[in-house]
Amino acid sequence: MASSTRLQELIALGQSPWLDYIRKDMLHNGELQQQIAQGLCGVTSNPSIFENAIAKSELYKEDIQQLAQSGATSIDIYDSLVKADISLAADSLRPVYDASKGADGYVSLEVPPDLCDDHERTVAEAKRLWQWIDKPNLMIKVPATSQGLLAIEELIGEGIPINVTLLFTMNDYRQVASAYLRGLERRAASGQELHSVASVASIFVSRLDTAIEGLAAEKDVADLIGKVAVANSRAIYREFSRMFSSHRFAKLQALGAHVQRPLWASTGTKNQALSDVLYINELIGPNTVNTMPPATLAAFLDHGVAKLEVDQHASEDVGVLAQCEKAGIDIESLGQELKQKGLVQFKDSFTHLMAAIEEAMAKHS
């Protein structure tokens, strides 16, 4: 009998390992299937991932040519390329989705980032993508902006699986979890079933530590490097446990509702002085997801340690966050700055991607 992989050990501890990456070649050469066999449970994408895949490789040039020759516009071409990749990934993960009865096996696709300040357009685009891709294991990604929160509530009420992205702080988390609960309550009030509604709340981890590093000399907090993001994420996990053990959620759970799992995103270690599996090892626990970039996934498979950690260090975490506050580091304000930078990054990636498609079209017009 074959020994289990470290990803399968994560699953046994209640955490679902997902891959934060998608590209055409991995969908055709057996790479994704191999990772699924090792225990991979899902795939996430974002505008930056698609920019790197489509604009910074030669893999899509022929497809772009053929679509351009057929009269497709640049946005038509983008839609076609993305639909092909997302659909193949969803089909590969469908057995995981079926075996888990809809708890796992998802592939995430983000609404265009220029819609983040308009909840009505976000809702319309999310519905379009959901109907167009037409896969039950598709998750639509919506940023946790003020308008995004309105969209999340409405989309959950419609029964569309949602990956809420770009969370950084406790306040972000509480607002997102509350929007999810309101969406479930709206759905229940209209007499619709809840058991098929899935959602994750994506907390971005390493970017917070990178920001803390930039403040280390100014604030004299060098001893906090590599600790704040983990402590912040664990505190959010404790809030998740509190909110989803409440009487309010119990009523929804009795109707078939699932918890909205915290998803640890941005888990590649940026600081080479820190462990390359830091944001995996330290955040393992029940009802969580960790979406890993390829290098981090490979590192965890090689030398990660699958052990319950996320709810084991409350006093230590409180101390780290208190030290931040004492040093004058406002994690809430820092998180909102990081969210805005993330939105700009995704908007820029989408703009660069569309420009690259138009350039490829022009070469073959």
Automatic annotation (TrEMBL):
One example of the protein's molecular function in GO is: transaldolase activity
Pathway(s) the chain acts in? Carbohydrate degradation; pentose phosphate pathway; D-glyceraldehyde 3-phosphate and beta-D-fructose 6-phosphate from D-ribose 5-phosphate and D-xylulose 5-phosphate (non-oxidative stage): step 2/3
Instruction: Extract the InterPro entries matched here.
Output: Aldolase_TIM, TAL/FSA, Transaldolase_2, Transaldolase_AS
Signal peptide span: none
First-level EC class: transferase
Q: Give the annotated active site.
A: K141 (schiff-base intermediate with substrate)
Q: What is known about what this protein does?
A: Transaldolase is important for the balance of metabolites in the pentose-phosphate pathway.
Name the family the entry cites.
Belongs to the transaldolase family. Type 2 subfamily.
Alphabetical list of HAMAP family matching this protein: Transaldolase_2
Q: What is this protein called?
A: Transaldolase
Organism from which the protein derives: Sulfoacidibacillus ferrooxidans
